[in-house]
Amino acid sequence: MKELLKQRFYSSSLLDTSALEQINFDIERDILLNALVNVGAANLDSEISWTQISFPGKNKLVFSSLTHSSSIRFEITSKYSGKGVVKISGKQLYDYVKQLPQALVSVSIDLPGSMKIKCGRSTAKMQLIQDESNNDFTVPEKGTSVLVKGSFLERWISSFRDFVSVDDNRFYANGSLIWLSKDKELNKPVLYAVASDALRLAQSKLTSDFKIEEQDDERILVPKKILEEVKRISSQEPDTQFQVKWHAASLSFLLETDKYRMVARCIAGQYPPYEAALPKKESITLELDLKTAIESVRRMILFTDKNKVIKMNFEKSTLKMTSFTPGQKEGEEFVELLTPVESDFEVSYNGSLLMAILNSLGGSKVTLTWESASRPVKITGEGQNGIEVFYLLVPTRY
Description:
Elements: H1 2-7, E1 23-28, H2 29-38, E2 51-57, E3 60-66, E4 70-77, E5 80-81, E6 84-88, H3 90-97, E7 104-110, E8 114-119, E9 122-127, E10 144-149, H4 150-158, E11 176-183, E12 188-196, E13 200-206, E14 210-214, E15 220-222, H5 224-236, E16 241-247, E17 252-256, E18 260-265, E19 284-289, H6 290-301, E20 309-315, E21 318-325, E22 329-336, E23 345-350, H7 351-360, E24 365-370, E25 377-380, E26 387-393
Antiparallel strand pairs: 1-5, 1-7, 2-3, 2-6, 3-4, 4-18, 7-8, 8-9, 10-14, 10-16, 11-12, 11-15, 12-13, 13-26, 16-17, 17-18, 19-24, 20-21, 20-23, 21-22, 24-25, 25-26
């Protein structure tokens, strides 16, 4: 029993702790802080109650955390004495470490009770958490697996992440639909993603710069919290090759590098039939200068009431935008169309939602396409090097 405790210790109540040894290590404050950030201790997420720190030997130091929806593991190299596994309040530890100066931090863990931290003139003592639960999810063995460079993964996720619903009463709508399938027009496999809320939709395709390891046609619903973490870590490691893997039957999603791993639970259910909102034909198509459109919409939002409605009147080669708050203020903008309209028409949109779409576009031009003025408008920008994306926005009443 004593020998077993020396090899592996969870910070929980034990009858015999006489064989437990102290764990000591010194680490730069920024390295420790980065490890805590990577396992989610920095997130203000009430689900995160503790961070686990493992000392398996051979200078490997493993940080991990567990929420209801994900398990995150991050490994660093650091010299230390002793072995074991301890758990502590991740938020409390993060909040303290981020306030320390950029200097060497000395950590001493007195098993099974507490962790002592010293940095410069600051010293703190924190109690270990009494818990022996498993700090991991099962990694999916089957499913779809692709390798994507961090810079491309971050750009792809950014193109649709903000359009995921988070408060739809249909729980299965609060996620992004992701799958790998062959694109008939491009005649090659493409990574697809669809995200939608009540008034807008984004469909994004990653068309290049990824390598397929395994493939099936299953689709998975990934929660927005998980997409936020994918964007965060991929933006920090733009040159790193990430493995992205999912398995629909087990509702598992994996993101992994040589030192980082996140396994997440995905959403069960059938995604709403978004295809019904897609234009069946393109009856009206016109182009605007993207920068001009963004500037005009931004100014028009200043004059709207709480509903943020902007009226758009298209007449020949001119777009007239108007907005107002009854009895208080009103604004008007004129924008030259790059392509004239054959028949004049008028439509209104939520200005804030329209601005979010315009800010997501690349290039210098924006293309607007309608099946009819009463149907959602399809909004696209210019090519983004391996990513093809379009957005739909539902019209609203003035």
